Design the sequence.
């Protein structure tokens, strides 16, 4: 994370990019520390790839400034910036072997031939493909190709590694495996890395910090835990993980009304009577063994239960909540112990500190 | 990169845009180069002997199109939708006309149906000299072009559509009307315009077998060569440009829509054997194939006997080109030189040009203009281009005047004449490459030309070979593009065919036309061997 003593490695100031009348990036400012792994996360069309391409110098911004390592690179073409890049399509040269692909950026740098060969071997070993150097891309699996692309990007030891949806084209299992590998490699090399992805799981597991983007603007910047636990907006809350959104009305500071129930929560600064949106994650809704009389408890009927392997997801309708539907994740053990099935009635606890309140009554979904 | 775009762009401007512009201007000038407005056009349209040709041209073009496109469609249908034997052979036979000059079918038709023809009676007293002969010759010449376009359209068929139709219990005719035809409709429209344009701009067939039946293309030739009336030649050229450009624009619009039809998830269609249907298709293909081959065979046979069909004693006399008018064996050597130069230089220019249009960043206006210039030759008939060259390069004030009637100008002209198809082939190949190659190279601090040589050229090698053979074959057969600009030392084989036919040495003309054919067959064979060898040597990466 940014420390006040060291200047950031990458500093983006008021970056705007327009394509004709369309604003793809709207006044983006962002700082990234040296050695940090940052993910740009958002739905397609949110501007994350445009931002990456602006950093790479592939699509120069309309206005704004980019500094890398203290140097203003705003107007430099891609060839004069310091980065390595990996694309979703791998973009491996099909007519060159894996080793030749990796060596591509090393040749021409006046390095001795033996030196280049040594470095290529080192890189191929690093990605676990030491025995496959003589193969052409078409003879490698998707995961292997992506690792070669990664090695090629890292060959010249760039100060910045840019990953544009690098794992999206791979099978689910390979993807999970490579996530781990890329992260390990990045930790070991301590290379400042930016990865663009639309896969929240990928961002949560790999990033030191996540930049959530929507409609060309940054919605929230934070660690994976911050983003998940304290989403700054309904958009972030909805985009990352699963979230229940329910319309509610503020009663007073620290309390909202939901149907005929009053719930304690951290809702400060709203005038009584304000329409708000209450949000809670399915896994934060607790089922009590016996009906209690604590605050924030309510009774609900099970409308449907779906078995999702390691847990159940239940659709619940609160009795005093005017038919509002809540989704809750229930452990397999709990469902078995309480014999929960459709039409069961449960006692729920909505923990005060797990409830988030957003202004406005527009309920998502 | 801008420098390269500039150089090749300048080439297209000098070799295409300026001459054409000058020709437009010429059509507005009097005999002493004074500006006279539309007076030439007024005179053209008030002289029935001249403007009648417009109707004649349209008539033979429409007739040829109406005959050739359905014929090519059913041939393509047989090749793609039946399991008849020898499909590969039939495809090769149908492509034979591409390898011969468009003068050859005319010569063969004279031998078959002419005043002393072998089966003259088959025309029931009608003369082959005129629209009948022109249409028959054009059907021969345009058949492979239409076939290739329709084949490509039919090859796009999605097997799932057929399976869905069968599952819905559609009858065979209904499937044909609701699945096959709609799927190929853009191909059919495209083929229609290509055939129409080729016929209306063709000069070879009407020259040899048109007799007194005047069409626009022969009018240009007569005005320029016969009457030395360059201004009127320019007027007819401009009139000839109109349908060609119109057809070109419609074709472009249609092709753009065809791309959207392609679905990546389509499953290729595999026809099943059906005895009766396959036999009918086989019979049809045999008939067409025999027709095509007999045209070539008659030419060859007539070239080898004393006087076809009355004296069938074998003789080499007709090959003694040096004793006939038309440039002799030297013209054959010139043609080979032209074809080789065009193949090598043209392929280089076309490929580098396409690369710059496709891969350069920024400079959008320049690239757009360049692309337009690259597409333009498709719409410009060879005769028109040739006449424009007279005006431009023969002008005493032009510093390039020295090029006139040299081999250099023939190469320049031929490359421009056949530029568009090569350009499109190269673009297609380049577009199949990952657009991020250049980005990756830039991030690795490699100059663009290094990626060009290390990656782009090797990956596109098969396509560049295709462009080269296309340029070679067309340089061997072209007449219309070069007929105005060859000189006494640069006579070509195809021109010799024309001139020997003019002087009545028909057998020698046929002999020379067949020399062109064999040369092209040889070049094709060599191309095939070279492509195979290169594939083994440099395309190992394509194998899994």
Sequence:
């Amino acid at each position: 994370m940014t420390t006040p003593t060291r200047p950031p490695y990458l500093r983006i100031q008021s970056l705007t990019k327009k394509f004709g009348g369309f604003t793809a990036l709207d006044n983006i400012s962002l700082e990234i520390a040296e050695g940090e792994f940052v993910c740009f996360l958002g739905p397609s069309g949110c501007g994350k790839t445009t931002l990456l391409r602006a950093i790479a110098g592939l699509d120069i911004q309309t206005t704004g400034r980019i500094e890398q390592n203290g140097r203003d690179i705003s107007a430099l073409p891609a060839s004069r910036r310091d980065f390595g890049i990996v694309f979703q399509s791998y973009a491996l040269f099909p007519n060159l072997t894996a080793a030749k692909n990796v060596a591509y950026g090393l040749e021409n740098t006046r390095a001795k031939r033996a030196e280049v060969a040594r470095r290529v071997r080192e890189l191929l070993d690093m990605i676990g493909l030491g025995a496959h150097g003589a193969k052409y891309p078409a003879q490698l699996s998707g995961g292997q190709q992506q690792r070669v692309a990664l090695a090629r990007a890292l060959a010249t030891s760039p100060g910045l590694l840019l990953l544009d949806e690098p794992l999206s084209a791979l099978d689910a299992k390979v993807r999970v495996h490579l996530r781990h590998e890329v992260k390990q490699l990045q930790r070991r090399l301590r290379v400042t890395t930016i990865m663009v992805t639309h896969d929240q799981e990928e961002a949560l597991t790999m990033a030191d910090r996540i930049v959530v983007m929507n409609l060309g603007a940054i919605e929230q910047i934070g660690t994976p835990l911050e983003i998940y636990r304290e989403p700054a907006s309904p958009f972030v809350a909805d985009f990352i993980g699963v979230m229940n959104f329910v319309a509610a009305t503020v009663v007073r500071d620290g309390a909202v009304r939901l149907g005929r129930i009053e719930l304690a929560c951290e809702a400060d600064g709203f005038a009584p009577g304000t329409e708000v949106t209450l949000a809670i994650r399915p896994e934060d809704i607790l089922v009590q063994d016996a009906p209690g009389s604590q605050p924030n408890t309510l009774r609900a009927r099970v409308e449907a239960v779906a078995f999702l392997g390691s847990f159940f997801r239940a659709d619940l309708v609160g009795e005093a909540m005017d038919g509002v539907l809540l989704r809750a994740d229930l452990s397999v053990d709990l469902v078995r112990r309480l014999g929960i099935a459709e039409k069961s009635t449960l006692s729920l606890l909505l923990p005060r500190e797990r409830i988030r309140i957003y202004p406005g009554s527009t309920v998502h979904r | 990169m801008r420098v390269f775009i500039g150089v090749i762009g300048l080439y297209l401007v000098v070799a295409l845009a300026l001459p054409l512009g000058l020709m437009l201007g010429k059509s507005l000038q009097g005999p002493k180069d004074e500006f006279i407005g539309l007076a030439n056009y007024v005179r053209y349209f008030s002289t029935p002997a001249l403007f009648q040709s417009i109707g004649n041209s349209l008539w033979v073009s429409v007739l040829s199109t109406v005959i050739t496109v359905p014929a090519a469609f059913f041939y393509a249908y047989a090749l793609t939708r039946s399991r008849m034997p020898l499909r590969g052979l039939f495809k090769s036979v149908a492509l034979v006309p591409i390898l011969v000059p468009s003068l050859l079918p005319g010569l063969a038709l004279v031998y078959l149906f002419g005043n002393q023809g072998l089966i003259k009676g088959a025309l029931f007293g009608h003369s082959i000299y005129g629209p009948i002969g022109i249409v028959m010759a054009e059907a021969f010449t345009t058949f492979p072009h239409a076939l290739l376009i329709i084949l490509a359209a039919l090859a796009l068929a999605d097997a799932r559509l057929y399976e869905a139709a069968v599952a819905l219990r559609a009858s065979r005719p209904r499937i044909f009307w609701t699945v096959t035809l709609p799927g190929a409709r853009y191909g059919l429209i495209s083929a229609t315009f290509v055939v129409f344009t080729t016929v209306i701009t063709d000069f070879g067939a009407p020259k040899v077998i048109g007799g007194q039946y005047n069409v626009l293309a022969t009018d240009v030739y007569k005005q320029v060569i016969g009457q030395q009336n360059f201004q009127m030649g320019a007027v007819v050229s401009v009139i000839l440009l109109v349908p060609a450009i119109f057809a070109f624009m419609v074709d472009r619009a249609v092709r753009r829509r065809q791309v959207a039809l392609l679905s990546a998830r389509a499953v290729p269609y595999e026809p099943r054997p059906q005895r009766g249907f396959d036999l009918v298709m086989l019979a049809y293909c045999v008939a067409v194939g025999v027709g095509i081959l007999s045209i070539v065979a008659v030419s060859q046979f007539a070239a080898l006997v004393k006087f076809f069909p009355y004296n069938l004693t074998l003789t080499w006399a007709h090959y003694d080109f040096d004793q006939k008018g038309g440039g002799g064996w030297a013209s054959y050597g010139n043609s080979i030189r032209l074809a080789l130069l065009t193949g090598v230089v043209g392929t280089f220019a076309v490929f580098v040009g396409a690369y710059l249009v496709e891969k350069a960043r920024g400079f959008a206006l320049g690239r757009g203009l360049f692309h337009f210039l690259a597409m333009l030759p498709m719409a410009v008939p060879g005769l028109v281009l040739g006449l424009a060259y007279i005006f431009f390069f023969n002008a005493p004030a032009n510093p390039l005047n020295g090029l006139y009637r040299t081999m250099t100008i023939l190469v320049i002209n031929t490359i421009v004449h056949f530029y568009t198809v090569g350009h499109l082939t190269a673009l297609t190949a380049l577009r199949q490459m990952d657009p991020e190659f250049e980005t990756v190279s830039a991030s690795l601090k490699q100059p663009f030309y290094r990626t060009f040589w290390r990656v782009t050229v090797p990956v596109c090698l098969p396509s560049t070979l295709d462009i080269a053979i296309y340029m070679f074959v067309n340089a061997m057969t072209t007449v219309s593009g070069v007929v105005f600009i060859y000189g006494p030392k640069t006579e070509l084989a195809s021109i010799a065919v024309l001139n020997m036919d003019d002087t009545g040495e028909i057998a020698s003309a046929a002999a020379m036309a067949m020399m062109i054919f064999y040369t092209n067959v040889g070049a094709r064979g060599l191309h095939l061997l070279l492509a195979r060898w290169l594939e083994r040597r440099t395309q190992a990466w394509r194998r899994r």
The two ends of chain A are 34 Å apart (CA to CA). The mean pLDDT of chain A is 90. Chain A touches chain B at residues 56, 58, 77-79, 81, 83-85, 87, 89-91, 93-96, 104-105, 108-109, 136-139, 152-153, 155-156, 158, 162 (CB under 8 Å).
